[in-house]
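Annex B. Sample input.
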Amino acid sequence: MVKRKIGEIELLRGISFLAIVLQHALASFIYLPATSEANALISAFLLLLIRFAVPMFVFITGLVLFYNHGDEVLNYPEMIRRRFSQVFIPYFVWTMFYFIWVGLISGSPPRGEADLLAQIAQLTISGDGYYHLWYIVMILQFYLVFPLFRYIVRRGKSWAVATLIVSLGLYVAYLWGYHHVVPGLYEMTTSQIIREIMDYRDRLFVSWFLFFVMGGFAGLYVDKLRYLFRRAQPINWVINIAAFAVLFYQLAQTLTVTPGGTYTINYQLTLPLSYTMTIYLVSSIITLYYLSLTWLPRFKWLRRSLRSFGQCSFGCYFAHPFVLHYTDAFTRNIFPGFNTIVQVMITFTACSALTLLLSYSLSRLRTPVGDLFVGKVPGARRRAVPAPAQPPAQTSLDI
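Annex B, continued. Sample output.
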């Protein structure tokens, strides 16, 4: 059965992708000492403001999976087959692309065949092919364990609020173990495999399951969710602003002056896997969903822009660090005397636009090469393929 499209999903994907690009553009500048106190505080403000991006993508993944498969008979082998072709293969292609590209720009000497294959396998499994690919490894785990989450969410469907509260409690308990138990176990264990799992615990699906469960209930109750978010937003505004204020105050308290007269801030306080950040991120997801229903659609140009990024977000996510490498170098060379924040915004704007152009251009290729790099982009029809007779169901690509 063809299901109606959830219009706000493309808006949320678009704004989340742009937040990712801005976050990575900031990273090119903010981890160097800021030249002024204002620049340091503005950078911290922006970074905290856009930290919702990864949790939002996980939320969207849960929403789409449960919307498409929550109430139907689940053909698990077929679902995995589709995710393998639509997600894993492009991921592997981009892993190879970055492996070759990094080798070329770094001048790394060629390796023996066995070492080469072992390194490629390690990069593919760990998500270390480039700094953003870890996310795909984490999302692929959710596909594999989806039947478990489907069983839990469906069992708790009649007690959705209670199930979400329990999930929040379990997630807080997990974060406590993440920060206080795992480091001790790491020192105690002698198993290299267990140590490596602990080293990569930030990309294990359990580190993000709360946002996936939230998305699962959202997918089962799309219409009720819209009504609830509209009613709850006045209270959520207070929670969101208060949590942001507390976190920004904590960031500002870490502002220090170096002997050279520059400024540094402990940006690690904005990492998502912490107690206060969890409250802020949950509230931010609700706020952004509310805005995608009410405020964002009012502006035609903004709606169209975000939908363009949302439709191409899968390929854009893979490609943007490659584009960012060159737009960052361009900004530093052409505008060396500009204020740091201005440089960040120039880099962000150029990278976003060029990445969208690249991803859309690849999607228009009349060969399977385009799909290998960017997946299937809605609206990117090729002459060799006739247009469908009816609108497609909600896309299954979850980036």
